[in-house]
Amino acid sequence: MSARGPVAAIDLGTNSTRLLIVDARGRPLERRMRITRLGEGVDQSGRLSSAAMQRTLEVLGEFKKAMDERSVSLARATATSAARDAENADEFARHVTELLGTAPEILKGEEEARLTFLGATSELDPAAGPYLVIDVGGGSTELVSATPSGLSAVSLEMGCVRVTERFFAHDPPLAGEVAAARDYVRRLVTEALSSQPELTRARKLIGVAGTVSALTRLDQGLVYYERSRIHHAQLSLGAIEHLLAELASMDLAERRAWPTLETERAEVIVGGTTVLAEAMLVLGFEVLTASESDLLDGVAAELTSP
After folding, report:
1. Domain assignments of the chain as residue spans, ordered by start
2. Strand ordering across the sheet containing 16-22
3. For residue 158, which of 40, 72, 254, 306 sits 20 to 30 Å off, Cα-Cα?
4. What is the rounded distance in angstroms from the CA atom of residue 80 to the CA atom of residue 135?
5. Each residue of 55-98: pLDDT tens digit?
6. Is 110-291 in CATH node 3.30.420.150?
7. Cα angle vertex 289, ends 146, 190, to 5°?
């Protein structure tokens, strides 16, 4: 279907729920993000909790009002790692469909990677590539790059929520817990590169999603979110390692009190930073380019395409 008016892309992620509304020509009208922790406890229980579903549905109610106010003509809702892993995802999907009037599509990891790559690279010069996009989510991390024959993509079971719940039993986490998490990330990324060597051919690394955005904001000391300051900013591995050491030395209350860090992200930022730091080390990149365009932008681009 082609859009005749504004369209909406909704991302039901493991850690956050997000909305992007664009006009029929693809120009952004509104972006919203709320941390809802839909995937809280899924790694252990295999189910979406009632509390997590309720938190997310309340935010979707807010999003539906915004969509109605903008006279959205077409919408697509996508769900990622938490919904892929949860045995009661169908129950959640029914509630979402009733609320939004559109059924959420549970993306396979490869489709999530494709849409993320489309959104993250749409404003970049192809001649400066090839690019490798890393998307550190709540429950999974996607690596995707373009090759002469198409896209090479892999989805790995490591994300800020999953690593936090699986490895960090203490607050702040013990050095041995962080080391164990890094070992886990190193093994998964190494296996991915072995199975898909095309991922090693990229010249530039593009980082997307909340962990990258939060670390870029911390690196710049931004008390308030400024998309223009974060989008396409450079973030070095050295800066990420420095932030990891600092964040991992604080307890949750101290992280929540840090004015340049979102209060809701404080609980999982050490897990996300651990994933990003170790992945960059294995991938061999000393710097990444942060992109605030990602999966949502990829979905919106397809909704507005002729």
Report:
1. 7-107, 110-291
2. 28-35, 16-22, 7-12, 74-79, 105-106
3. 254
4. 12
5. 999 999 999 999 999 999 899 999 877 787 788 889 999 999 99
6. yes
7. 60
